[in-house]
Structure formats: structure tokens, C-alpha cells
Amino acid sequence: MRHCLALLSGGLDSILAIRLMQQQGIGVEAVNFKTVFTCCQDQSAQAARDLNVPLTVIGQDADYLDLIKTPKFGYGRGANPCVDCRIYMFEKAKHYMEQVGADFIISGEVVGQRPMSQKRRDLERISYHSELEDLLLRPLSAKLLPPTLPERKKWVDRSQLYDFHGRSRKGLIELAKRFGMEDIPSPSTGCALTETRFSKKVFDLNLRQPTSGLWDYGLLTIGRHFRLNAEVKAIVGRHESENLQLEYLHQLPDATSSALLRPREFSGPAVLLIGPMEKETLAFAGGLIMRYGSAQDLSSEATIEVLGREGTLFLAPTACRSAQSAVPITEC
Fold first, then answer.
1. Nearest CA to 68 among 221, 205, 215, 222?
2. With contact defined as beta carbons under 8 Å apart, do 105 and 4 qualify?
């Protein structure tokens, strides 16, 4: 019995690719890639349970950020280096395939479905640069592509594969119904890098802090981000959960934040400060607390607590400028 490794996002395409292999009696093991920008792990886990396949989640290494900062094959509409990212994922999948002794890899890619990573030329690039080439089978569009090793060796019956192409989901949905699927997943990239507003934060970080690490990029998914100047950025919690996240992140060993500000004796957000703890920057961060806080709760004892790397100090709210004109990076 032959075994394959499948990339499973939890979307319709990857589910159908696995079903087509199972239909031919091929054993399937699934992998899902988790990065600081992806958000579909729950969906992939549920899909693996429904398909009755084991699932392994693989995270990115530090070198993943290199392709976010300087992708060889460029960005899409946002900060999404889709071709580079797919190559990276398949490289990791190839390594895992060799570890578990699988015979080949499958994915749910459809020719022409995504403009950034699924043109025929892009699919060829991904296969070549990941060094998979003949061992990467795309069951949903296999008949539009050269036969792979699994097909030529008759491990997989090519006649039972498909020639889907383009962005229409009609044929894919019909196939899903033939497999008895009742709940059809909605199309989704599952990646924040494709979002225009989020991408502005990524490009800002790439430009202003080119040596940033995973901590800095993970922070982009939390709060409102404001930049005072090239060195100073402030992140404002939007609700209590984010306030707690900012406090936690500030305490991590790899944190690049210089201070965490939070209100005392009045309601308001936590603000994480990146950059020098100078008078102007503290006033700017404190002003953001005032802007999004509850001014009516102020009393004579009200202060803003500043948790810095070298100790704690307190600011009077009256010493903080308003920051009313500050615009979030996503709106710049």
C-alpha cells in the first residue's frame, strides 16, 4: 500500500485532494503549517478528524522571516510572498515525508485559481525550487500537468484525477457533493498577509526595523499600531484580552519593547512602547491611553504606570499630550 503526505489547510481543495487519494486506497497523512500569520489550525484539525487522517502541525523557523522581508518571487496584493511561502512549506513537507517514509506529496492546488501562486508557471517554480518536482502531485488539476512519478509508476490512477482550472468553485462543489460532503468550507486564504490593512504594518516593520525577529512580527496581530517616528512605535490594546497579551509579551525574554504603560485609578488600554523611553515618547504613549481611556474616571490620584526594563515609574495624566491626531499605521 502506497502512502502520501498531504498539505491540509482545512479548505475545500485540500480536503478533496485527500478524498481522491483515499478513493484509490492510498494511505494519507496530513500536515498543516502554522506561522505567526495563519489562522486556520482549528479548521484543519476538524477536517483531519472528518477525513480520519493523522495530522501534524509544523511551525516556521526563524529563516521564515527572510522571505517575508525579501521574497525572491515578490509579493501579491498585500505583504504575501505566496510563491516563496509555498516553496518553504513544501521544503518542510519534503523533509517530513522522508522522516515518515511517505512515497509522495499531494496538495489541493488548482491551476489558475490564485493569481499569485497557482498559475502554471508558479506551480512549476514551486515544484522545482522545493526539490520535489516529480514527487508533488496535484490531484485536482493533474490532467492539465505533466504526469508525475506516482502516476507513471501506476501508484495513482491518472484517469481518476481531474482537470479543474480557474477560480470557479462550481465543479469542486459538485465533486464534494458526490463525496457526500454536506458542509462546504467557504473560500479563505487563512493568512493575514493577504489583507491590505495588515500588510501596511508588515511593510512598516520591514522598513523601520529590518532586523526584527519573530516576537516583533507576532506583535503585528495584536492591537492598534501607531508610529511617532522611525524609532518609536506604540501598540494600544483594543480590549482586555489584548491588554493581557501585551503585558505577557512585554515579559518575554526576546521582547524588544522598552516599556508597558497602563492606567491606574481609571479605565483605559495598556500601551506597549517600542523605542527609547524618552519624555516625548512616554507622553505620546500616555496620550494614547488618555485618547482611548475614560477621562471621566480621572481623580486626583490617577496615574499611568510605566513598567520599564529598569524599573517602574508613574506619569500624571496631565503630563501626557493628547495624541488625538495620531493615525494608526493601517490607515496611513
1. 205
2. yes
Rounded distance, CA 226 to CA 282, Å? 13
Which H, E and C letters describe 49-94, residue by residue? HHHCCCEEEEECCCCHHHHHHCCCCCCCCCCCCHHHHHHHHHHHHH
Element (H, E) at 226: strand 224-227
Exposed, middle or buried, 330 (CB in 10 Å: 0-12/13-18/19+)?
Answer: middle
Burial class (CB in 10 A: 0-12, 13-18, 19+), 287: buried
Under CATH, what is the fold of the domain 3-192?
A: Rossmann fold (3.40.50)
Q: Considering only CA atoms, which of 324, 274, 273 is closest in space to residue 295?
A: 324
CATH 3.40.50.620 maps onto the chain at 3-192
Q: How do residues 229-267 score in pLDDT, each as one tens digit?
A: 999 999 999 999 999 999 999 999 999 999 999 998 889
- Residue 73 makes CB contacts below 8 A (sequence gap 6+) with 81, 83, 84, 122, 125
Name beta bridge partners: 311: 308
Strand partners, 259: 273, 308
Alpha-carbon torsion 111, 152, 48, 55, what sign?
negative
CB-CB contact of 19 with 179 (8 Å): yes
Of 62, 60, 58, the C-alpha closest to 32 is: 58
What cell was used for 263?
Answer: 492606567
Q: Which residues pair with 39 in a beta bridge?
A: none
For residue 164, how many C-alpha atoms fall within 13 Å in the half-sphere facing its CB? 24
Beginning with the edge strand found earlier in the chain, give each strand of the sheet holding 303-308 in spatial order: 224-227, 233-236, 271-274, 259-264, 303-308, 311-315
The pLDDT value given to residue 40: 58
pTM: 0.89
* Stretch 295-302: mean pLDDT: 73
